[in-house]
């Protein structure tokens, strides 16, 4: 590595690579520092049957889009890794893999100092593109479970065969929890599922993928500033569905009908006895209401636009709980393992710049922080629904690049204002900045 760069991009996933593409197009000296390898998160934190929930046609990175023969399909994990590797090869970014940034500070002179596992470097500007999923979040209640019980986080789950024989308790029903519960269920395991408050959405409705309708309706173009509760929007769980086997709904009620045991959210542990809240019915009803609300919006759009779309009967619940199962005896039920599908914590302790709010969230406006020269990219709802996904990170990267270059031009103008009237042959970089 060099000792100094104009821009340091931290993180070599889809966000960091997208920013590098724009910087390379503008001829800006920069480096992309990746702790592991390109696509590391997709390689290591996904189960064997994992596939994207978003359709392939939404995979649009700067200068590179999905061009396969299945635009309405859903890439498997290995295919996602291949997609990112091919993207990197398409423009050869100044990427350094296997190097971790362990400390980021800003000097009194306004230059950023980066301590890395390969030595210290500095940069005029920094883009943090490490995403939000850093440390697996396992609740402290896990410490109270019997020591003989196998416990792992969803990031460690690969397949049913890695778990000991017996029943499996899955805690959490976001996208990962629901898909892992389905994976275990299809493998013939007895699944006990602690249901949370995540909403669901139908995979298809009235002849098209639901996401295709929402995209056409402009839903994914809505900026976070259009929501009155922006902070809460950023914290909401994603709607659960799956792209498995060509894509389908995830219906927890159907799982229960077919033998899966559903409970409310986990609230207590006493020995081998688990206590659950009596909120299962409410959680299922709320998830269904969200899914039906999305269909209502699609119906209104179809009607207003005069689109000829096939009619479709609405969802009818196939199972209803009575909330009588508020407890689970692990030993009596033969449960041998627990999968915690409880999300991730952010870990920004290495960033020693005061940009965080009281909850530890990095404050920003469309990725521009209050610290001059420091930018964020790839966060969920950084600007739109697609900000942390293949669907919208390209737009965010383009915007941040324009802001970054504008700041560079302004800083350069301020620093060389005393050169007024000096021939540009003496300082040829003036012409470059003017054109950037």
From TrEMBL:
Keyword annotations from UniProtKB, A to Z: Oxidoreductase
Top-level lineage group: Bacteria
Leader sequence residues: none
A Pfam match: Pyr_redox_3
GO MF terms, alphabetically ordered: flavin adenine dinucleotide binding; monooxygenase activity
Protein name as catalogued: FAD-dependent oxidoreductase
Organism: Paractinoplanes toevensis
UniProt lineage: Bacteria, Bacillati, Actinomycetota, Actinomycetes, Micromonosporales
